[in-house]
Amino acid sequence: MDITGGDPLYRIHGTASAGQVVELRYTPTVADMAEGLRPYGRSRAGRRQRLPFVLIGLVGPGYAAIIVAQGGGALGSAVALSVMGLFGWAFVLFGHRIMAGTTRGLLAAAGECRAVVDGEGVTVDSAQGSVHLRWTALSCYAETPATFMLYSGDKRVLGGALLPKRGLADPGEQDVLRAILDGKLERI
What we know:
The structure is a single chain. The chain is an alpha+beta fold. The chain is 49% helix and 22% strand. It has six helices and eight strands; from the N terminus they run H-E-H-H-H-H-E-E-E-E-E-E-H-E. The strands form two sheets. Strands 1-2-3-4 form a four-stranded antiparallel β-sheet, with helices on one face. Strand 2 and strand 3 form a beta hairpin. Helix 2 packs across helix 4 and helix 3 packs antiparallel against helix 4. The N and C termini lie far apart (44 Å). The relative contact order is 0.19.
């Protein structure tokens, strides 16, 4: 007797090492992605990545003020340096929204997603295909009021998984998902 109902994901994840399996069904949005990316900016690695933009935000307008105060150079250079500084500060303050906006097309093409989290890792099925991330490919996670965001271990955070809480069938599953993540990843 086949209890899997023919579902290949059940066969892959039915023998989770922790014995716990959580399934989410959701359609990802840019707002979800922005909320998921925000906590990374507050981590040590995120602050280190933002440092050049802070320096640009300080040095650009500062140097422009020196040019204007000395009365030398072209006014256009001072304006360009000031604009460059504003762009630096814009990225420091709104970088998570800017990065989330760049995923707009990818998220729209994904359509409805099904994610399975278990003792082996995270598998996300979408209209684009299936991705399985083992726990060794992930380094940490963050929980926000609406999402769990899993981050990869690389410096540029090029991989990871977005898990909106609204995708859980039962709100009580948040505790099970949190327990799995706490057992496998560092929380930031």
